[in-house]
Automatic annotation (TrEMBL), chain A:
SUPFAM superfamilies: Cytochrome c oxidase subunit I-like. This is Cytochrome c oxidase subunit 1. GO terms for cellular component: plasma membrane. InterPro entries: Cyt_c_oxase-like_su1_dom, Cyt_c_oxase-like_su1_sf, Cyt_C_Oxase_1, Cyt_c_Oxase_su1_BS. Its main location: membrane. Signal peptide: none annotated. It catalyses: 4 Fe(II)-[cytochrome c] + O2 + 8 H(+)(in) = 4 Fe(III)-[cytochrome c] + 2 H2O + 4 H(+)(out). Residues 11-524 form the Cytochrome oxidase subunit I profile domain. It is a multi-pass membrane protein. Keywords: Cell membrane, Copper, Electron transport, Heme, Iron, Membrane, Metal-binding, Respiratory chain, Translocase, Transmembrane, Transmembrane helix, Transport. It comes from Ureibacillus thermosphaericus. It is found in: Cell membrane. GO terms for biological process: aerobic respiration; electron transport coupled proton transport; respiratory electron transport chain.
TrEMBL record, chain B:
It is a multi-pass membrane protein. Pfam families: COX4_pro (PF03626). The chain crosses the membrane at residues 30-49, 85-107. InterPro entries: Cyt_c_oxidase_su4_prok. Keywords: Cell membrane, Membrane, Transmembrane, Transmembrane helix. It comes from Ureibacillus thermosphaericus. Its main location: membrane. This is Cytochrome c oxidase subunit 4.
Length: 630, 113
């Protein structure tokens, strides 16, 4: 079996093959992390280009058309292809370890989810080289996107359809994993907060992605086969797209922010060295935010003319979300309060997160006030608001977690000193960029404009904002540099790198073997590793079973082949309206590849293999020296 | 764990107990099936009897709702109290239903388009 070769040196080809076929949640986490980082960098670069264009009035650094493409791709990429995979990376890495599982419930689907996302994302980005990117904003409102020339919107529709399928598959996988794969004793109310928020956010994915799929499908049919779902001149209705998009789109922001909340709920108790304050109210607040997230979509559409009743109801529902979110903020503050605080890089991100996120939340409640929203709508105030929430909430969580979980991922630590530099440069840059945009919005600067005239009082604030954007870019470069430098650092080979870990993932010694737990742990309470440490247990966990054979899944290349099939078929679908003769054969070949791979998967039984107890002992000896994980 | 899987034969009394249980279940399924046929008949009947549309529409929707619940509980085994994670499954189904119903209600009452 493959087990013995795990720690031996392998050739480059073997390593690449291993990553292409892997179904191991830790390796998929690494893939998610780096592809997410890649798209984060691309989208960040797009933002930088836009800020350079807006640095001075009447600038002609980039053209109006290019600016539209950049703003569309920046938004689409950041939400679908950067934040989502980065958070999925942490979920993949941490959730199975936190609940004491050896892998996710469906390792094959986990791999399929990743490859669908990655190839969908690649497809979308190929638009830059193949006749122009989508240019109707990340919301792609039908009244605009139906009339967008070229293939940009088709890339958007097909690319998001493929990557959305991947996200949906991964979401379902996490729901099943968290519900069915918890170690003995890990009841729902003993689950760490990050596992809870992953569960709720996966549930939101389950309920929110189907409306997007339907919307994208209708858009596809409208654009490619001249249907008229969204064309009002033919009896369609362009508002239907807005509703479908926002029924998906509003939960989407909670899909992203809930895992970020969960990450901070892990980080803060570790460095405050105190149990998380108000655990059950945190769980309740998470569920409530998830539920209310579905009840407020129309607040993005106050100015479309829904009528006073609808606006009033959705305004009140939106304001109601501030209540559970406020509960969370107070719980974090009260966790820190009176703790024996250790300031580290993850903790300083957490400390920066709380005021930044609250600022974003407060402007959110301002926009929930429908009459005021008529003033703020489509101005830079909106831009400032959602960047405060997304950068202040999600990106800080991701950066903090890079530092926090790096030892689990790679058995290396990132530099603290460079981490502080990164934090301060990024954090100051972030506030410089977006704080002044509130005022730009109030002064009347509309969002999504590629330039502006001088003498309107916008020049200085735009200049400041662009300087901030450059600082943020420097921060990200330093962060990547820090990651690269960590390769050269010494392997840690330790357990509980931060010294105050509380949940199960810290009870494992790094490097974590591919089967995670040689024996399934027995969870005796909330914060199981903390309990074991208090009782002086040197092994970090009580075991629920004797050392025995472990059942593990086999690697498979099929997920990649299935995804490539859809990737190929998407090109056929894209060029079909042009009357290309090869479009139908390409579609048939692509879908054929996918269906064939699915048939192979269904017909050929793959029952995995058993890792014997002797092999486990051998691996442990090799990883941790004589005596194994002691 | 696969290595400690136990295989047990069924005793005579266990066999008889299972048999009786299946008989009860069968009866329940047949009764539910009859109810559903009847409800479908009522739905058709309201149309054939030429009632006012304002009456027919809500009645048919109501009957459809009842049918969905019957379908879920009797034929899709949501009434099986001992199935693993049945509580979680019910929660998911009902939360999904509530959310979908909210959209339906909102579009039909407060949202103009």
């Amino acid at each position: 079996m493959s087990s013995v070769a795990v720690t031996k040196k392998k050739g480059v080809g073997a390593v690449i093959w291993d990553y292409l076929t892997t179904v191991d949640h830790k390796k998929l986490a690494v893939l998610y992390l780096f592809s997410g980082l890649l798209f984060f960098a691309i989208a960040g670069f797009e933002a930088l280009l836009m800020r350079i264009q807006l640095m001075f009035p009447n600038s002609d650094f980039i053209s109006a058309g290019t600016f539209n493409e950049l703003l569309t791709m920046h938004g689409t990429t950041m939400l679908f292809l950067a934040a989502t995979p980065l958070l999925f990376g942490f979920m993949n890495m941490v959730v199975p370890l936190q609940i004491g599982a050896r892998d996710v419930a469906f390792p094959f689907l986990n791999s399929l989810g990743f490859w669908l996302f990655f190839l969908g994302a690649t497809f979308l980005h190929l638009s830059f080289f193949m006749g122009g990117a989508p240019d109707a904003g990340w919301t792609s409102y039908a009244s605009l996107s139906l009339y967008s020339p070229g293939h940009g919107i088709d890339f958007y529709v097909l690319g998001l359809q493929i990557s959305g399928a991947g996200t949906l598959i991964s979401g379902i996988n996490f729901i099943v994993t968290i519900i069915t794969m918890r170690a003995p004793g890990m009841t729902f109310m003993r689950m760490p907060l990050f596992t809870w928020t992953s569960l709720i956010s996966s549930t939101l994915i389950l309920f929110a992605f189907p409306p997007l799929t339907v919307g994208l499908f209708l858009m596809l049919v409208d654009r490619m086969f001249d249907a008229n779902f969204f064309d009002h001149t033919m009896g369609g209705n362009t508002i239907i797209w807005e509703h479908l998009f926002w029924i998906f789109g509003h939960p989407e922001v909670y899909i992203l922010v809930l895992p970020a909340f969960g990450l901070f709920s892990e980080i803060i108790p570790v460095f405050a060295r105190k149990r998380l304050f108000g655990y059950s109210s945190m769980v309740f607040a998470t569920i409530l935010i998830g539920f209310l997230g579905f009840m407020v979509w129309a607040h993005h559409m106050f100015t479309t003319g829904l009528g006073a009743t609808a606006n009033a109801i959705f305004a009140v529902a939106t304001m109601a979300i501030a209540v559970p979110t406020g509960m969370k903020v107070f719980n974090w503050i009260l966790t820190i309060w009176g703790g024996s605080i250790k300031v580290t890089v993850p903790m300083i991100y957490a400390l920066g997160f709380i005021p930044s996120f609250v600022a974003g939340g407060v402007t959110g409640v301002m926009q929930a006030t429908a009459p005021l929203d008529y003033q703020l709508h489509d101005s830079y105030f909106i831009v400032a608001h959602f960047h405060y929430v997304i950068v202040g909430g999600i990106v800080t969580a991701i950066f903090a977690s890079f530092h926090f979980y790096w030892p689990l991922f790679f058995n290396r630590a990132m530099s603290e000193k460079l981490g502080y530099w990164t934090f301060w440069i990024f954090f100051i840059g972030f506030h410089l960029t977006f704080f002044v945009q509130h005022f730009l919005g109030l002064m009347g600067m509309p969002r999504r404009v590629f330039t502006y005239m001088e003498g309107q009082g916008w020049d200085l604030f735009n200049f400041i904002s662009s300087i901030g954007a450059i600082m943020m870019a420097i921060g990200v470069v330093l962060m990547v540099l820090n990651m690269l430098l960590s390769i050269k650092s010494e392997p840690l080979n330790c357990r509980d790198y931060w010294g105050d870990g509380r949940s199960l993932e810290w009870a494992l010694k790094t490097p974590i073997p591919f089967y995670n737990f040689k024996q399934t742990p027995l969870v005796r309470g909330f914060d199981p590793y903390w309990i074991e440490k208090q009782e002086g247990n040197p092994e970090g966990m009580t075991y629920a079973e004797p050392l025995g054979d472990v059942h593990m899944p086999n690697n498979s290349i099929l997920p990649l082949i299935m995804s490539i099939g859809l990737f190929v078929a998407a090109f056929g679908a894209l060029y079909h309206p042009d009357g290309e003769s090869w479009s139908v054969p390409v579609m048939v070949i692509g879908l054929g590849i996918t269906v064939l791979a699915m048939i192979v998967r269904s017909v050929k039984d793959d029952l995995g293999y058993h890792l014997h107890a002797e092999e486990i002992i051998e691996i442990e000896n090799e990883l941790y020296g004589k005596g194994g994980n002691k | 764990m696969s290595h400690d899987t136990e295989i047990q034969g069924r005793s005579q009394s266990q066999y008889e107990f299972d048999r009786r249980k299946s008989a009860v279940q069968m009866r329940k399924q047949v009764i539910n099936f009859a109810i559903m046929i009847f409800l479908t008949f009522v739905a058709f009947a309201t149309v054939v009897a030429d009632f006012a549309p304002t009456f027919i529409k809500p009645v048919i929707l109501l009957l459809a709702g009842i049918q969905v619940v019957l379908q879920l509980y009797s034929f899709m085994h949501m009434d099986d109290k001992h199935a693993p994670f049945i509580g979680v499954i019910s929660t998911f189904v009902w939360v999904g239903a509530v959310i979908a119903f909210t959209f339906f209600l909102a579009f039909n009452t407060i949202i103009w388009w």
